[in-house]
Design goal:
Two copies of one chain form a homodimer. Chain A has helices spanning 3-17, 55-65, 83-95, 111-124, 138-148, 167-174, 187-192, 197-203, 235-244, 263-280; strands spanning 43-46, 69-72, 99-108, 128-133, 151-155, 181-186, 208-213, 215-216, 225-226, 251-253. In chain A, 40% of the residues lie in helices and 17% in strands. By secondary structure, chain A is α/β, with parallel strands linked by helices. The first copy, chain A, is globular. The first copy, chain A, has a single domain, classed as TIM Barrel. In chain A, the strands form two sheets. The first copy, chain A, has an eight-stranded parallel beta barrel with strand order 1-2-3-4-5-6-7-10, surrounded by five helices.
Chain lengths: 281, 281
């Protein structure tokens, strides 16, 4: 293991150990010196944003954007990767000062897929999976959560999603389960599904573990991805709601417009979100 | 003259005629429908940002960024252009819904250069020049301002500038002259020259006609261009100061980092500024 990676893991462990909130949420590991692009809410990127790029290209874009948190998508690190491949990817991220704070979105349609996802999370060294287990796998997923002490943040995917269109569809199925089962609130898809974001954040605050941050052109099925600030989402209200619940997770931007040439839109989106946070501070 | 250009000029004229503030400052012509990327302060781009690109490329980038105001730099429309060339450039801008609200920065080191600049402004159809006349040409420049009813906004260029390092160096030389002589406050160079931006905006409010918006890494000669929000300038305080004086001009972003590949940095900078304005609204 390279020294940088070892330091990263040690510091991450210290950071997680030091949190005073719900022990498995934790603020994403503060493994680097605070810089000018860090605000009250840490900004990350959901790996799907770079679906058209390989890991090296994704890292180069993240460095340019000065983003330090990544939700690793299987495109960049396949779920059944061997130890060498995982080490190689983690070393590249550590060298770029990028904290791979979670993995996903991982779709789980069989017990084997659930097993694979939790084994993958353990090998990658994250304490949370952003995933989508089918309803009939929720009992088994809960067993795995307990057995591995790994959180799962279930992702909502809008009106077209037969399982979890909005955050309520997630929450109602996990609210009486292990507290390590929660939500990855995708604010774009939630808006398209008719959810009130501020209410969802308030109502589900104890189970809100991750966020996919984006903007959409309409609060309906027809809503399309657009640069943050140009769409219908009220980011001022969103940030206020997150600060009110003292949200301890990452705000991972997921940009799904111009996917073959995302830098301009990503940069504008991240700039807008940073501007909002800076204004608010 | 193409119909679009004729409409543009007519609407511009109406917009300028309708301003109730100082008649020659005027809010930049509102010739298009208000959209989601317009806030309390209109955002433009200083043409020098696109020094490495031709006009068509510059327009394509502005459209992607949804920016509607341009300070035309001579790189994209040479000062001694003939009528056909000027018409061609104005038609391209009008087709892209871009308002060329001023020209500059134009350096003037001779009476001929002053004559050329004012003739150019008239031919382009703008009522303001962003320029840098030498001290000995200020009297002659003032005569031209009176004769042509065209404003001049003198630009400060930081500690290396022998004439106008900071805004005080401009203001002190124009404060007793015709009121149509004022400042284009370059906030990056002003910061590098040691100016207090909020104080400058307040003190020179009656002569503040244009802004070059950017960020710098240090409030000293060594300060370099950087994405807005990552540097030392307090944009929250800046926007507050501009709103306090009810600034009626354009905030033209001038991005001087990564000049051969400026889109990511431009987009981040504009996103940050928009996020600040949206938060503030």
């Amino acid at each position: 293991m390279p020294q940088s990676r070892r330091n990263f893991i040690q510091k991450s462990a210290l950071a997680f150990a030091g949190t005073t909130s719900f022990p498995f949420i934790g603020k994403a590991a503060a493994f680097h010196t605070k810089n000018k692009t860090e605000y009250s809410l840490p900004i990350g990127i959901a790996g799907y944003t770079f679906a058209k790029f390989d890991l090296d290209q994704a890292i180069a874009m993240m460095k340019r954007l000065d983003i330090r948190y990544l939700s690793i998508k299987d495109i960049h690190l396949p779920i059944n990767s061997n130890e060498d491949k995982i080490k190689e990817v983690l070393a590249k991220l550590a060298a770029a000062n990028i904290n791979p704070y979670t993995v996903g979105v991982i779709y789980m349609r069989s017990k084997q897929a659930v097993d694979d996802a939790f084994a993958y999370a353990k090998k990658v060294g994250v304490n949370m999976i952003v995933g989508v287990p089918t309803y009939d796998l929720l009992d088994y997923t809960e067993q795995k959560v307990k057995a591995t002490n790994t959180k799962i943040a279930i992702h909502n995917h809008g009106p077209e999603d037969a399982l979890y269109p909005g955050p309520a569809d997630v929450y109602n199925r996990i609210k009486n389960r292990d507290a390590r089962m929660g939500l990855c609130l995708d604010i774009g898809h939630a808006t398209r599904a008719g959810a009130n974001l501020e209410k969802a954040i308030s109502d589900y605050k104890n189970r809100l573990y991750d966020l996919h941050i984006k903007d959409v052109t309409a609060a309906s099925k027809e809503g399309k991805a657009i640069e943050i600030g140009r769409g219908v989402i009220d980011f001022k209200a969103l940030i206020k709601a997150l600060e009110k619940i003292n949200y301890k997770g990452v705000c991972s931007v997921e940009f799904e417009k111009d996917m073959t040439d995302p830098m301009a839109g990503m940069a504008e989106s991240i700039g807008f979100f940073r501007g909002m946070l800076a204004c608010n501070s």
